[in-house]
Amino acid sequence: MIPLQLVALLLVAVAGTSVVLTRDLARQVLVNAVYGLALIVLFLVLQAPDVALSAIVVGSAAFPLILLAAIVKDRERE
Amino acid sequence: MTRTARLALFAVGAAGLAALLVTGVAGLPDFGHYRGPYGDVLNQVAVGERHATSVVAAVVYDYRGFDTMGEELILFCSVLGVALLLREHREGRARRDDPVRSDALRFFGLGAVAPTLLIGLVVIAYGYVSPGGGFQGGVIAGSAALLVWGAGSYAAFQHVTPESLVDLAEAVAAAGFVLIGVAGLVATGVAFENFLPLGTPGTLVSAGQIPLLNWAAGLEVAAAMTLLFAEFLEDVMIREGDGS
After folding, report:
1. Does A23 lie at the interface with B, CB-CB under 8 angstroms?
2. What's the angle, vertex CA B213, arms to CA B162 and CA B163, rounded to 5?
3. What phi, psi does B95 have (nearest 5°)?
4. What pLDDT sits at residue B156?
């Protein structure tokens, strides 16, 4: 394992843990985006450009939008 | 159950899980030591057999094209489910008025719509030549529509994504993917077997019927994403209760 891969793996571990530890939902969506970015870096470092591209396109628009829509809807009901 | 009993139960469960996890991880191949034969075999034969320089595309749309058809239909059915559940009793209900008022955001956001769509189409088009393909490009193309809402207004988003057109594209693309597989079955006796000239590897005219499947997947995913965005946005944009 080269140092770059080790750093990328550690980033994923730290970011993933941060997602779980963030309790505010709207903030969690943003922390989750950072976790997605860490995963993308890991995929690129491990030479999987197709997977990295899939992660980029899903993580940049579709997934955050659906989460935010659900959160907005939920807050209105309260 | 008391707190002590719960903790004891958790400790036993956690210890068991940890033991299994450690055993499992210890049994994995070493980092970077790939054991399976399939990846190596495909890397050797895919370009020669299928004339697709992106081996991933050759695997997704040819060697396991039948699985990809299943995935296409999973997406189709999920989006259908979302539409069935959310698309109801909306006529005559008040929508939020939410046009973006910042000129800078409108200018740069709406200016990025066409380039985003173009990037999506390029990612689809070169899917079997280099990394990319119908799924990734389709999501990017769908995101271009979302940008119209994000930088413009909900009314503009509705205007560029007419429901009937999106529904039609979704259905035609899903059916098209299946029909290309059936065409292979009719022509060669094997579903998703290539039945077109293979062309020159590394160019857009290559890889037999993979470009057709790739574009069908791209259209399917773009329509699915647009429909999904439209339904979720509609749900958020409709005012809760009586217009309050």
Report:
1. no
2. 10
3. -105, 155
4. 82
Residues in chain B with CB shorter than 8 Å from the CB of A66 are 228, 232
Phi, psi of B222 (to 5 degrees): -60, -45
What's the CA dihedral at B133, B134, B136, B141 to 10 degrees? 120
Confidence at residue B134, expressed as pLDDT on a 0 to 100 scale: 82
- Contact list in B for residue A53 (CB cut-off 8 A) is 123, 131-132, 136
Q: Which residues contact residue B167 at a Cβ distance below 8 angstroms, ignoring those fewer than 6 apart?
A: B83, B223, B227
Quick one: tokens of B104?
């800078």
Q: How far is B40 from chain A (nearest CA, A)?
A: 15
CB B150 within 8 A of CB B112: no
| CA geometry: angle B178, B144, B74, nearest 5 deg | 30
pTM of structure: 0.81
Give the closest of A57, A76, A77 to B140, CB-based. Answer: A57
Greatest Cα pair distance in chain A: 50
ipTM above 0.85, yes or no: no
**Model confidence at A15, in pLDDT bands (50, 70, 90)?**
very high
CB B188 within 8 A of CB B224: no
Å from A77 to nearest chain B CA?
A: 8
List the structure tokens of B216.
């069908």
